[in-house]
Fold these 2 entries.
Entry 1:
Amino acid sequence: MDVWFQFFQKYSGNSKIQFILIGDDEIDQRIQALPNVCRTRDFGSYIITDLGFIQCADYFMSMASGPCNMALFSKTPYLILKDPDHHTLEMKKEIGDKDQYIFAQKNQYIIREYQSAELLQTYFQKWFDSSYRT
């Protein structure tokens, strides 16, 4: 949670950005207190609604999980983080040394690195700058 808090906090003052958290995981109170973060669960959302949020998102960020598969097969730009020590052989077979599936579009990445706020910021900022140039 510290990594994600650092990431969300960096953008907490940007009124152009709203983070919508999906799923049933417990969320650190520091994250929930940030002005541009909300949880669908607080509004009675169910998995089907959460999957719709993924399809409608400007950008989706997640650890590899069941719901992230909605993003994998969509046009939604995404960053999916995969623990490099989890399913190592399977991931090598699926995408080799690449950071995208062969069917992925621009700004759709699956990264096999350990989480860090810098990693999240790098990919998010790259997408944000290309999408929202002023």
Note: The mean pLDDT is 93.
Entry 2:
Amino acid sequence: MRHCHFLTYFTLLISISIVVACTSKQTSSKLDCIASLIQEHPDSALTTIRAFDTSALNTRSLRAYYSLLYAMALDKNWIDTTDEAVIAPAVGYYNKHHDPERRAKAWYYLGRIQYNGHRYDEAILSLIQAAQWSIPLDDRFRSLVFQAMGDTYGATSLYEEALSFSDSSIVYCLKAGDMPLANASLYRKAQNLNNLKRFHESDSI
């Protein structure tokens, strides 16, 4: 009789595991769909993720993915949150799991959120982590990280450092062939040169 009870319990556990696995796969697919919208249709991505049934986020992996996409969607819609709780699940999870792209992005968006809250020392530390993990990633993302570092140093009046990171950002923008982003970094460079009273160089950009 005890053997039968054990088999019944074991069968139940297997069934539950299968249901959870299937549900997790469906949820991950839905999050993948949101991820595909973020670049070209950020408003739709944000609307969808805000309406997402978070009770379906039944694993740490899913909660981390959702957290990262939410932070990305806010950023793409020019919503400057200061709430670190938005990205905290992603930072905590990806910092312990080998996924350089998501780890780099989690640290990057944490840095951006800290920058929004004027916590510049913390932001720099987060962005250094993002830069470290962004080495194997695409040039456009690396340019964003370096410009964020430049912005943060500029906000603390460390204009020489800000200028250096703006230069790095421009290099990677050009490698990526993203001229709008390169122009934005050139504008930041001109601002830093102006702050350093190198007016002739600033005016020539």
Note: The CA atoms of residues 47 and 73 lie 9 Å apart.
